[in-house]
Write a structure and sequence with these properties.
Belongs to the Glu/Leu/Phe/Val dehydrogenases family. By secondary structure, this protein is of the alpha/beta class. It folds into two domains: 135 residues, Rossmann fold (3-Layer(aba) Sandwich); 199 residues, 3-Layer(aba) Sandwich (Rossmann fold). The protein has 15 helices and twelve strands. The strands form two sheets. Strands 1-2-3-5-4-6 form a six-stranded mixed β-sheet, with helices on both faces. Strands 9-8-7-10-11-12 form a six-stranded parallel β-sheet, with helices on both faces. Helix 8 links the parallel strand 8 and strand 9. Helix 2 crosses helix 15 and helix 6 crosses helix 12. The longest helix has 21 residues. It is globular, with a radius of gyration of 20 Å.
Length: 364
């Protein structure tokens, strides 16, 4: 079901010709009073209500926003399935620069749109939205998670997201080098914001050597001032070309693994927090052909969604951390399945997730 009233020709083309097909519902949201323009995409509810964050980003066009929502929603179906959650996949995007157009009125209007779906979609934080924003949305919508502890929520989900990525790195090290320890491994982290900075803490605690970059100079300085041993480079291109890099961790926006970056990547492992790291189908094979082990993004970055899902039943941090720690075993199982089937790890993860969703549909 797709509400397309008032949609432009480009948006309609994106909806009906997207290679991300199979979505159950796409809603185009507009509230003139607040200036809200948003897209809510529900990919699947086979395993339960769709769960996924709200991205606030200055998309160049509505069609670009729709395409991103479709892609992200599909990814959430696979992420939630691999995390063992009883949730399907959904995602919302709000169009605009959050630094300029985000207001309480706009967030309340957005909450009303989410509420109108009657619980088919549960929202949370993503790029450009924060715990305080979810507290506002929750005033209009009870299907909101990622709220502050003061409002009955679990707070910042980036802590467990970083922990899960760290567990994925340990699994990759075990599979590739026969030892999960990251001591003396050189790890390049692209993006040291909400998740990346917590990941750096885990790596430092284990004795890894760390190289970082971020488009925001203040984010880099916050790390290097606190940890002088951490080295910073100018940009991502310099990071991926760093000699002696063992692990590359993309922790910013998607598309980091593409036709330009993969051929020059020096690392033997890619394991990061960013969503949709593979720029297009086929990149996973390019990585495998170069002998680079790819830890599927939606598997290793699931710590955050594990946390926000748990919030719906009454948050318990230790319970969530224990579940996020199992990302290590899940990643090892994916690597083993990939080797057994002779396919890249991304394809192996997809097969496992699709099997779980298919079994759920069969039971339904």
């Amino acid at each position: 079901m797709t509400d397309v009233s008032g949609a432009s020709a480009d948006v309609l083309h994106t909806l009906y010709h997207s290679d991300q097909g199979g979505h159950e519902q796409v809603v185009l949201c507009q509230d003139r009073a607040s200036g809200l323009r948003a897209v809510i995409a529900i990919h699947s509810t086979a395993l339960g209500p769709a769960l996924g964050g709200t991205r606030f980003y200055p998309y160049a066009t509505e069609a670009e926003a729709v395409a991103d929502a479709l892609n992200l929603a599909r990814g959430m179906s696979y992420k939630n399935a691999m995390a063992g959650l009883d949730h399907g996949g959904g995602k919302a995007v709000i169009i605009g620069d959050p630094e300029r157009v985000k207001t309480e009125e706009l967030l309340l209007a957005y909450g009303r749109f989410v509420a109108s779906l009657g619980g088919r979609y549960v929202t949370a934080c993503d790029v450009g939205t924060y715990v305080a924003d979810m507290d506002v949305v929750a005033r209009e919508c009870r299907w909101t998670t990622g709220r502050s502890p003061e409002r009955g929520g679990a707070g910042d989900s980036s802590v467990l997201t970083a922990f899960g990525v760290y567990q994925g790195m340990r699994a990759a090290a075990q599979h590739l080098w026969g030892d999960p320890s990251l001591r003396d491994r050189t790890v390049g982290v692209a993006g040291v914001g909400k998740v990346g900075r917590h990941l750096v803490d885990h790596l430092l605690a284990e004795g890894a050597r760390i190289v970082i970059t971020d488009v925001r100079e203040d984010a880099v300085r916050r790390i290097t001032d606190a940890h002088p041993a951490v080295r910073a480079v100018a940009d991502t291109d310099a990071l991926i070309r760093t000699e002696g890099l063992d692990i590359y961790a993309p922790c910013a926006l998607g598309g980091a693994l593409n036709d330009d970056s993969v051929p020059v990547l020096t690392a033997k492992v890619v394991c990061g927090a960013a969503n949709n790291q593979l720029a297009h189908p086929g990149v996973e094979k390019d990585l495998a052909d170069r002998g680079i082990l790819y830890a599927p993004d939606y598997v290793v970055n699931a710590g955050g969604v594990i946390q926000v899902a748990d919030e719906l039943r009454g948050f318990d941090f230790e319970r969530c951390k224990a579940k996020a720690a199992r990302i290590h075993d899940t990643a090892l199982a994916i690597f083993a399945r990939a080797k057994e089937d002779g396919i890249p790890p991304a394809a192996a993860a997809d097969r496992i997730a699709e099997q779980r969703m298919a079994e759920a549909r069969g039971r339904g």
